[in-house]
C-alpha cells in the first residue's frame, strides 16, 4: 500500500478529500502523517479526528530551512513515506527534501499553470477577468509552481460569478482531481 505524507498549512479540504477517497475504497493508499507549519490550523484537528499522526512545526525555531527539512525527512523515512502530497502547504520545498523525493512530491494549484503561479491564483485570475481558469496537479521542483504538469482541468468563470463562486468551482474539481492523480501514480508504480 502506498504511504502518503500530506503537508498542509490551512483548512485541509484537499487533505479531507484524499482521506475520504481512501475510506471509500477509491484510493489504495494510507495517509501516514500530516505535516503542518501553522499551529492551530484547522487541518490539524481533522488529522486528529482521523487518528493520523501529526507533526506541527514552526519554521522560525530552526536555524535554517535545511534544518527543519532534515527533521521532516527523518520522519518521512521512519514511516516509509512513498509520496509527499502538498495540499495548501505555503512553503517552497528545498533541496534537503526535494532530492530524496524527486518526482515523488506533488502539489495542487488553483490555476491552469503556468498562468497565475504563487499566492492567490484565484484572485489573480478574477482580477485579470479571464473566462477560463482551472486546477493543476504537478510534480514539485525548485521553483514556485514550475514543476512538470501531471494533470489539469479547466473551470469556466461565468458572467456574474463572484470570487467565492470561483473558489467553490475550483475546490469541487480539486477534491476529485487530486485523489484521481494519486490513484494514477499507484497504477503506474504497479506496472513498473
From TrEMBL:
Signal peptide: none
One Pfam family named in its UniProt record: Formyl_trans_N
Binding site for N(1)-(5-phospho-beta-D-ribosyl)glycinamide: 12-14
Keyword Methyltransferase among UniProt keywords: no
Enzyme Commission (EC) number: 2.1.2.2
An example molecular function term from Gene Ontology annotations: phosphoribosylglycinamide formyltransferase activity
Active site: 109
Entry keyword set: Purine biosynthesis, Transferase
UniProt catalytic activity: N(1)-(5-phospho-beta-D-ribosyl)glycinamide + (6R)-10-formyltetrahydrofolate = N(2)-formyl-N(1)-(5-phospho-beta-D-ribosyl)glycinamide + (6S)-5,6,7,8-tetrahydrofolate + H(+)
Pathway of action: Purine metabolism; IMP biosynthesis via de novo pathway; N(2)-formyl-N(1)-(5-phospho-D-ribosyl)glycinamide from N(1)-(5-phospho-D-ribosyl)glycinamide (10-formyl THF route): step 1/1
PROSITE patterns from the UniProt entry: GART
InterPro entries: Formyl_transf_N (IPR002376), Formyl_transf_N_sf (IPR036477), GART (IPR004607), GART_AS (IPR001555)
Family annotation (NCBIfam families): PurN (TIGR00639)
PANTHER family noted in UniProt: PHOSPHORIBOSYLGLYCINAMIDE FORMYLTRANSFERASE
Protein purpose: Catalyzes the transfer of a formyl group from 10-formyltetrahydrofolate to 5-phospho-ribosyl-glycinamide (GAR), producing 5-phospho-ribosyl-N-formylglycinamide (FGAR) and tetrahydrofolate.
Family designation: Belongs to the GART family.
Record-given protein name: Phosphoribosylglycinamide formyltransferase
